[in-house]
Every structure is written in structure tokens, then in C-alpha cells.
Prior knowledge:
Layout: H1 11-49, H2 56-60, E1 61-66, E2 69-74, H3 85-90, H4 101-124
Antiparallel strand pairs: 1-2
Helix pairs in contact: 1-4
Amino acid sequence: MSEMRVEIDSSGAIARLNEFMQNFMQVNTVLEEDVNDGVEMMVETARILVPVATGRLRDSIHYEGSFPDYSIVVDAQNEAGQFYGYYVEWGTSKMGAQPFLWPAINAVLPKLVYRIRRHVKDFILGR
Length: 127
């Protein structure tokens, strides 16, 4: 009885997998840059939109964290120690809302999503 043998040369597949992983790491870096830029644009846009009396509220707008977890923080306090960004954004029974944070997010988010989609599509298509 003769022996039956099947040999598989996987070196080409391994090489392609390695190339894919290198490209994936590059696209991940690009996406990280996209998200960083997007969060920075949201903060800058909020600083432009926020009503300015003393400038404390505008100057308190910043972000914390790193990719992929960020928080946009508005931490200005009045003399009583109250964080008043919420009252400006949403209003009170005595003061109308003057939204600045959500409009900034809504203005930047579609651009950010477009950039991410474009980069992922380029990655998938091997561009």
C-alpha cells in the first residue's frame, strides 16, 4: 500500500496575513489621529460657540482621556462653587438655554464619521 501525503505551503498565506496586520496597525493609527482631531475640533468649536461674560466658562472647556475613551469637560465654577456650564447649555427656570456643547458635537461629528469611513474603506480596498 502506498502512502498518501498532502503538503500545504502556508508561507504565502502567512506573508499575506503579516502584511494585513501591518496595514491594520497603520489604519488603527490613522483612526486614532482622526478621533483625536475630531475631539479637538469639538472642543475648539464649543469654545467659539459658548457665550462669554468673564471667559471662565470658555477657558474651562477641554478634553481628558486618550484613544478610544475621551471626555469633554466643562468645569467652570461660580463663586458658590457650582459648575454652571450645565445651566448655560440647558437653561434654568430663570434663564434660557444657550447651547454650545451639543451644537459643537453635532457640527463636528458628521465630518469625523466621514473621515473614519473613508479611511476604513481605503484600508479594505487596499489603498
